[in-house]
């Protein structure tokens, strides 16, 4: 599985590098307020926009993961406390007897 992760990231890095090399000379003008014009490299602009779009979902995922870990740790602590307070009752082997099950339908002759 680790090999597939490394392979995925290498392929993704190769695609980004190929995109940057192929479109490295492209310049994009962005018109801002009051007549300001920002001149960006196209690959840099697209990578920045992608990372800005990825950031909210990444933050939400990390928050969900942290909250799940906190809830799981709390439940594990509660379970450990319950196990420490109530020991399992010891039942002697002679007290366990197998009794026949009562009939499901009442016998009319009795």
Class of secondary structure makeup:
mainly alpha
Helix count, DSSP H or I runs of 4 or more residues: 2
SSE succession: HEEH
Distance between the termini: 69 Å
- Overall, the morphology is elongated
Assess the beta-strand content as a share of residues: 5-15%
Low-confidence stretches: none
Helix content: 55-70%
Major sheet details: 2 strands, antiparallel
Mean pLDDT: 85
Beta-strand segment tally: 2
Radius of gyration: 33 Å
**Lateral strand order in the biggest sheet:** 1-2
What is the element layout, followed by pairings?
Layout lengths: L1 H22 L3 E5 L5 E5 H44 L25
Antiparallel strand pairs: 1-2
Organism: Sphingomonas naasensis
Protein name: LapA family protein
Keywords: Membrane, Transmembrane, Transmembrane helix
List its traits.
transmembrane; 2 helices; two-stranded antiparallel ribbon; mainly alpha; 110 residues
């Amino acid at each position: 599985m680790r090999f597939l992760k490394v392979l995925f990231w290498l392929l993704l890095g190769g695609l980004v590098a190929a995109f940057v090399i192929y479109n490295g000379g492209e310049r994009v003008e962005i018109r801002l307020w009051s007549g300001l014009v920002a001149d960006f490299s196209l690959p840099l602009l697209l990578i920045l926009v992608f990372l800005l779009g990825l950031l909210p979902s990444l933050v939400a995922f990390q928050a969900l993961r942290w909250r799940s870990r906190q809830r799981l740790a709390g439940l594990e602590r509660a379970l450990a406390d319950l196990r420490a307070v109530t020991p399992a009752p010891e039942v002697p082997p002679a007290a366990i007897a197998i009794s026949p099950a009562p009939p499901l339908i009442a016998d009319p002759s009795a």
